[in-house]
Write a structure and sequence with these properties.
149 residues, 2 strands, 8 helices, globular, mainly alpha, two-stranded antiparallel sheet
Length: 149
């Protein structure tokens, strides 16, 4: 998948959370008819579903709230109002889990399969985040994306 204008990196943080902003980008891009079709089947599933579950909100409700407007931080605050606030420790565990998904866990076989399917064999891909980044034309290893806040 080539770079998608307006779709930020998995590693970008909104508040204390990685991935959340990317999920909001996908919601907005889909509503505007600008999200490539390859992304459509996983809207609200996969990492989106995990993120909503972590925050204690329904993806459909989050979609409606996102499309109603507001900043990413306002939408995140809305999530905390509905699903309860998360502690710094919970956010650290979330970020660590997400950034390492596919590395020595039950998703490793899926990651290896997708690396081959996407023609990315030989790249320094160790996680699902890395896979998405390389697939979209970014090099998270060279950028040391996991260190950015």
């Amino acid at each position: 998948m080539p770079h998608v204008p307006g779709l930020r990196s998995n590693y970008d943080q909104t508040g204390r959370l990685v991935y959340f902003g990317r999920m909001l980008d996908k919601i907005r891009l889909f509503a505007a008819g600008q999200l490539p079709a390859d992304y459509h089947p996983n809207l609200g599933k996969g990492f989106d579903g995990r993120c909503c579950s972590f925050l204690g909100v329904d993806h459909a409700a989050l979609t409606a709230r996102t499309l109603a407007g507001g900043t990413d931080l306002e939408i995140l605050a809305w999530c905390h109002e509905r699903g309860g606030p998360r502690t710094d420790e919970q956010c650290a565990v979330w970020n660590g889990f997400m950034m390492k998904r596919g590395w020595r866990d039950d998703a490793t076989p899926i990651l290896q399969k997708r690396i081959a399917e996407f023609g990315l064999v030989g790249r320094p891909i160790e996680t699902m985040f890395d896979l998405n980044e390389f697939d979209e034309g970014r090099d998270p290893v060279a950028a040391r994306a996991w260190e950015k806040k």
